[in-house]
Specification:
mainly alpha
Length: 194
């Protein structure tokens, strides 16, 4: 389905942008992507996408990578924590990770040895959603998507996106965060149907 391909593509893009700073090829692809035109119910998403394309046109790849590192990696403590459990609970983060690892194992997914980030990294969670969408759009597949989204993304993305917006070092990533929040808000509403 074209709608599922578009959803999976947005999840893949956001996962990539939250995993590492964009290279010039990715910035160019975003900058030259088609403008999104939508009805009133998706105007925030269309506006956020179009603003992201404008930001990508103005951004240098090296500056974007440095911005990513300053925001999400940092020296000592990152300005923005990219781990979903941070936005879910003051305590009990380890239990959240244990449950997530069990759920990922049930889906046949696991962290590769070359990856050192915990499984609740937003890039990883968004990539799991991309994977779940790729499995199909029948009722059972949509229920899996909704369940995973509700348990691991729905309650954490608002705080994560707000942290990006409030970050003093964010420039390009403010546009990424605004687009992420708009897209995930649309997803949240669409997945409530199931």
């Amino acid at each position: 389905m074209p709608e599922d391909q578009a959803r999976a593509g947005y999840y893949a893009l956001l996962a990539r942008l939250f995993y590492a700073g964009p290279d010039s090829q990715l910035l160019n692809a975003i900058a030259n992507a088609d403008e999104m035109v939508a009805g009133a119910e998706q105007s925030a998403l269309a506006g956020a996408w179009n603003a992201l394309a404008v930001a990508a046109r103005a951004m240098d790849a090296e500056a974007a990578r440095l911005e990513y590192d300053e925001l999400f990696v940092g020296t000592g403590k990152a300005e923005v924590t990219p781990h979903a459990s941070y936005y879910l609970a003051e305590t009990g983060r380890e239990m959240i990770l244990v449950r997530l690892r069990g759920e990922l194992a049930g889906l046949g997914l696991s962290r590769t040895e070359s990856v050192h980030e915990p499984e609740d990294h937003m890039a990883g969670l968004l990539d799991v959603m991309r994977h779940l969408i790729s499995l199909g759009s029948g009722d059972a597949a949509l229920q899996k998507q909704q369940g995973f989204f509700d348990r691991h993304i729905a309650r954490s993305y608002p705080g994560f996106c707000s942290a990006i917006s409030a970050a003093g070092k964010a420039n390009f990533y403010k546009s990424v965060g605004i687009f992420a929040e708009a897209f995930l808000a649309v997803e949240s509403e669409a997945l409530k149907v199931f």
